[in-house]
Design goal:
The protein is an alpha+beta fold. The chain has one domain. About 25% of the residues lie in helices and about 35% in strands. It has one helix at about 45-60, and strands spanning about 5, 10-20, 25-30, 35, 40-45.
C-alpha cells in the first residue's frame, strides 16, 4: 500500500519512498524525480486529493508515463 503525503510548501502530493537524512523522500504519483521535504512540512491528503492522485497515476500508466 502506498503512503501519500502533501508537501505543504508546494501543495504537491507525493508517495513516501524513504528518508534522506532528516528529510522525507517523496515521489510524484505520476512518476518522475523524487524530492525531499522536511517532516514538519507535510500533511495527510484529503479524500479528494487521494482520489485525484489515483486518477492521475492511472492516466499516466495508460499513456506510458508511469511504470
Amino acid at each position: 500500500m502506498r503512503y501519500l503525503l502533501v508537501d505543504t510548501r508546494t501543495s504537491k502530493i507525493g508517495e513516501l519512498v524513504g528518508r534522506d537524512g532528516t528529510q522525507l523522500l517523496l515521489r510524484p504519483v505520476r512518476g518522475g524525480r523524487e524530492w525531499t521535504c522536511p517532516p514538519g512540512s507535510t500533511r495527510e491528503p484529503t479524500a479528494a486529493e487521494k482520489m485525484h492522485a489515483g486518477v492521475a497515476a492511472a492516466n499516466a500508466r495508460s499513456t506510458g508515463g508511469l511504470r
